[in-house]
Every structure is written in structure tokens, then in C-alpha cells.
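Figure 6 in text form: structure in, sequence out.
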């Protein structure tokens, strides 16, 4: 039962297509048409709709932008609907509306369920909804890395669990080796840094500066350097306030304030305002007495010792040497000392750290050896099952004697330090393990298994691709499969078998195939024709559903290039009748 179905696509101003609606349905849909009519644009449109790269060259000449809109029926409780709802999208009568706009300037916008979303979200939904396979995907299957990915995908958790552990250990090992390499290769520079820090700390320790000491000494030096002027000023001020015993006739401030206070006290009872002033005058008299007393004490206690001044200046000079090297003031010098002490502890602990890292590296290499062996074992077990399943599918695709197998190899490490032990020998390893995985094909009995990149023709590669996808459909299915000329290089009986196998796949998923083979199209539940007309100025493409006589005519054209050929028509009708009986 198909959980999600691509119901409809509308394509505007994309390539040769001016404005077309592609109506799809559950089951097997074949898209056919003349070469250059725009069949591949259907695949390109779906690729854009599902987060593919936006190429402004796809925009139709003269148009400002190309727009692709899609309607995908989804289950409200399905992961795709839930993911879309998290982004604020809403379903439209059980369907998810998706659109992609590409401007002629290269800008791209995406919308899901009426909400603007990042294009990356379309790719996330695509992983769950549609598997797109075109000729570029066939070429991708030739790469060993893609073959390993396919094997790992088929194996599922049997490979996925140890692979996740291996990846984590691998990343940690790389980090440990990088740090260890830095510590060992920069040992001389770090030793020089430690010596400089140690010298600076010893110099500061010899002076023993105290926080704020430089400020206090600066103030004391200023006071000692002007001791005589300070004492004279204090004496003059004291005499002005409290009087000079040597000049009894002189008038002092305390006497004047006291006289003013007595004058006010005599009449304060007559006016509250004057009474308040009298109180304030009393406060002034007290304050003058306090200041006069402190001035007398200041002058008596002022230290004018030149030896003390010399000691202060000497200490300031010592502190100045530190501030010239390690900070703008003593507070900055002490901060530098604290940071440097911590750094020196770190540098002095390098030898210990190197030992710790070396031990961790060895432990991680041991873990990687175990995990790499687990990956190899899991891949080997899955490879046997995967190869058997693909071989069985090839038998149904007119390759009854073909045999598929996997070669899982490891490369000897250049030295013991650059490898992990797998199977009792040191082998090179990487982020995906120690295995080199290669898909082999023996197309007929007696033929040695060879890499599919060397041993498979175009038609054979197409069938291997389809067989692999059919096997995946049984273990890790997606709701919709789109194949772009998966039958390239195939004809005759093989084409019939591909059509039959696609029809079988369509019983459990939606299958859309862009094809030029009538043997494949005849097995489709629905056939769409992409046709192009030319009015002399603008080329337009339309997509129509073929039924009855129209479908026979299109199959006749595909068979013989002549829609009205009686022989071709008879063959087309025979193909349709045979397909209906077998499906």
C-alpha cells in the first residue's frame, strides 16, 4: 500500500516547457515523447521540487522565473507531514503543497504548505518521499564509494551501529593525534616559552610587589618631596584660624567667628531665622576649631626625612622596571604573573600530557581495530545477502546467468602507526572504516567477476541499477520512485523484463519512468505524452494522458516511428494485451 503519492506537478517556464500540468497516479506511470520534447524536464522539475540545485539556465528564455508546484498526498501522522507541520506548514485535504521558484538571476525560493521554508527542507522531505534515479545516478554507482554506501544502506543497523561507534572513535583519534603532533613538533618553541615565563615570574617574585603599592608610593613621594612647603602652609593656615602666639595683636578666624556668634546669640530669641543662622555660626566655630587642631597635628607629624624619600624612590624604580615589561601598572603586572603561572604549569605538564595522549591514542587504535573488524564482518555478511538478492533480480531482468558479488578488501598500511589491525594485519583506515568495497559482475557463466565500471555495458548497468533499487524497495522503501531512462541501452526481451519488473515494484510503491522503449511503457498503468509544437516564435510543451487509441498510436510511434503503421499498431496492441495479462 502506497503511503504517499505524488499526485500532480505544474511546470511553468522551465526549459522547453511553457506551462504544463503532469497528472500522476498510484502505480506505474510512463512518460514518453519525442527526443527533445521535454521528458527530462519532468525529472528536472521533480528534482527542483525536492531541493535540487537551482540552475538559472533552466529558466525559459524571456521568462523572469521558472516555477514548479507539486501536490503530494501524505499521511497526516507520517514523518513528512509531521516535519512539515513543525515548520508551520498545513495540509490541504490530506496533501502537502510544495513549490519552488527559480529566477533568471539565480535566486531560489521554496514553499511548503503555504509557508516559506529553506530549500534544505525540501531535500529533507525528499529523503522520505521520493527516490530519483537518472543516468547520472547510474554513473555514480560506478564509484566504489557509492557502492559501499549502497551496501551499508542495505545492511541497516548491522553496519549502522558499529559504524556510528567507529566514526566517533575515529574523530576522537584524529583529535588526539593532532594534539599529540602539536606537542611533540613544537617542543622547542614551548620550552623557550616556558623559560621566558619562568624568568619573568622570578623577576616579579624578587621584587614582591603588592596590589596598589605603586599608587601609594607615588602619593608618599609627592608628599615627602614637598614636606617643607606643606609644613609652612599648614602653619600659616593654623595661625590664621587659631592665632599666632608670637603676635598677640593679630586677628584670627576663630576670634572673629566667636564674636559673630556672640552677637547673634544676644538677639536670637527675637527671630527664628536669625536663631537658625546663630546655630550655623556655632557649627562653623566648631568646624574651625577641628580644622585648626588637625592643621597643628599635621605640621607636627609631617615626615620630612630625606632617607625615607630615597627609600621610596628606590622602591618605585624597582616597580617601574616591572611595569615597563609586564604591565602598565602593578595591578596589570600581578595579573600577568597569575596568567603566566597557569601557562607555565600547563607547559611544564606537557611531558605528562604527551604520555596521557599517547596512551589514549593506543587505546583508541585498539578500539578502532575491534570496530573496523566488526564493520568488515557485518559488511561481508550483508554483501553475501545483497549480492544474492540483486542476482535474483537480474534473473528477472533478462540476465538469468549473471552473477553479482562484492569484493571487500583492505590496503596494507604504510607503517604500524598509520594503520589498525584487521584480520591479524595492519591495514590503512579512514573515516568509513578499513574496507574498500567494489561491486563485481559476471554477466555470463565462465566470465570472471569484474568491476561493473569495466565489466558492464550500458544496458547491463541500467539493469543492475534497477535491480539494486528493487532490492532496496524490499528493505528500505520510499513511497515514490522516479527513473529517468533506466532502460538506456536496453532493447528486446530485456526491455520487456524491465517493464515487467517496474510493474511489480509499482504494486508496493508509486513508480514514474521516463522511457523511450514501448516494451516498458506498455506495462504502465498510465502513460503520459510530452509533445512539443512550434508556432514559429515560441515553443510550447504539453503533457497529456494517453488512453485507448491515443496510447496505441504513441506505442506505434515508439515501435516503428509511424503512428499509422498497421504492423506497428498490431505490435502495440499485442504489447498492451501481454502486459495486462502478466500484471
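Output sequence:
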Amino acid at each position: 500500500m502506497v503511503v504517499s503519492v505524488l499526485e500532480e506537478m505544474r511546470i511553468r517556464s522551465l526549459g522547453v516547457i511553457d506551462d504544463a500540468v503532469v497528472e500522476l497516479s498510484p502505480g506505474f506511470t510512463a512518460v514518453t515523447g519525442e527526443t527533445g520534447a521535454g521528458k527530462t524536464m519532468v525529472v528536472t522539475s521533480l528534482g527542483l521540487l525536492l531541493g535540487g540545485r537551482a540552475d538559472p539556465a533552466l529558466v525559459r528564455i524571456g521568462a523572469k522565473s521558472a516555477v514548479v508546484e507539486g501536490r503530494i498526498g501524505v499521511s497526516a501522522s507520517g514523518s513528512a507531514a509531521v516535519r512539515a507541520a513543525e515548520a508551520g506548514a498545513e495540509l490541504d485535504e490530506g496533501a502537502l503543497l510544495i513549490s519552488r521558484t527559480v529566477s533568471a538571476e539565480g535566486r531560489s525560493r521554496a514553499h511548503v504548505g503555504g509557508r516559506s521554508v529553506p530549500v534544505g527542507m525540501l531535500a529533507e522531505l525528499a529523503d522520505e518521499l521520493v527516490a530519483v534515479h537518472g543516468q547520472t545516478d547510474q554513473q555514480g554507482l560506478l564509484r566504489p564509494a557509492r557502492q559501499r554506501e549502497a551496501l551499508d544502506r542495505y545492511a541497516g543497523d548491522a553496519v549502522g551501529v558499529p559504524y556510528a561507534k567507529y566514526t566517533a572513535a575515529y574523530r576522537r583519534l584524529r583529535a588526539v593525534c593532532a594534539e599529540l603532533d602539536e606537542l611533540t613538533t613544537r617542543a622547542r618553541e614551548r620550552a623557550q616559552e616556558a623559560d621566558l615565563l619562568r624568568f619573568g615570574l622570578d623577576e616579579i617574585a624578587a621584587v614582591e610587589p603588592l596590589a596598589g603599592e605603586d599608587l601609594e608610593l607615588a602619593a608618599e613621594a609627592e608628599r615627602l618631596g614637598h614636606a617643607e612647603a606643606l609644613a609652612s602652609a599648614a602653619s600659616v593656615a593654623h595661625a590664621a584660624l587659631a592665632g599666632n602666639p608670637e603676635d598677640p595683636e593679630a586677628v584670627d578666624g576663630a576670634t572673629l567667628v566667636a564674636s559673630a556668634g556672640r552677637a547673634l546669640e544676644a538677639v536670637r530669641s527675637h527671630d527664628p531665622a536669625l536663631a537658625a543662622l546663630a546655630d550655623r555660626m556655632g557649627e562653623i566655630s566648631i568646624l574651625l576649631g577641628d580644622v585648626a587642631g588637625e592643621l597643628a597635628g599635621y605640621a607636627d607629624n609631617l615626615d620630612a626625612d630625606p632617607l625615607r624619600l630615597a627609600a621610596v624612590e628606590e622602591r618605585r624604580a624597582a616597580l617601574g622596571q616591572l611595569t615597563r615589561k609586564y604591565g602598565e601598572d602593578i595591578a596589570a603586572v600581578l595579573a600577568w604573573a597569575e596568567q603566566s603561572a597557569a601557562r607555565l604549569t600547563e607547559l611544564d605538564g606537557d611531558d605528562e600530557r604527551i604520555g596521557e595522549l599517547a596512551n589514549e591514542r593506543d587505546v583508541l587504535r585498539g578500539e578502532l581495530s575491534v570496530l573496523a573488524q566488526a564493520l568488515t564482518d557485518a559488511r561481508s555478511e550483508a554483501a553475501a545477502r545483497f549480492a544474492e538478492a540483486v542476482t535474483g533480480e537480474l534473473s528477472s531482468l533478462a540476465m538469468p546467468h549473471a552473477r553479482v558479488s562484492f569484493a571487500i578488501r583492505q590496503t596494507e598500511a604504510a607503517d604500524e602507526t598509520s594503520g589498525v589491525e584487521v584480520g591479524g594485519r595492519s591495514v590503512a583506515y579512514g573515516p568509513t572504516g578499513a574496507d574498500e568495497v567494489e561491486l563485481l559482475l559476471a554477466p555470463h557463466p565462465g566470465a570472471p567477476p569484474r568491476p561493473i565500471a569495466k565489466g558492464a555495458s550500458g544496458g547491463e548497468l541500467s539493469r543492475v541499477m534497477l535491480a539494486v533499487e528493487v532490492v532496496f524497495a524490499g528493505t528500505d522503501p520510499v513511497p515514490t520512485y522516479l527513473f529517468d531512462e533506466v532502460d538506456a541501452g536496453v532493447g528486446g526481451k530485456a526491455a520487456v523484463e524491465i517493464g515487467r519488473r517496474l510493474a511489480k515494484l509499482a504494486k508496493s510503491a508509486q513508480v514514474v519512468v521516463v522511457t523511450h522503449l514501448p516494451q516498458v511503457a506498455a506495462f504502465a498503468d498510465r502513460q503520459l505524452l510530452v509533445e512539443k509544437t512550434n508556432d514559429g516564435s515560441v515553443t510550447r510543451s504539453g503533457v497529456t494522458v494517453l488512453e485507448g487509441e491515443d496510447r496505441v498510436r504513441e506505442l506505434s510511434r515508439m515501435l516503428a516511428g509511424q503512428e499509422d503503421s498497421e504492423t506497428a499498431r498490431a505490435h502495440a496492441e499485442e504489447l498492451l494485451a501481454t502486459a495486462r495479462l502478466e500484471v
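Caption detail: The mean pLDDT is 83.
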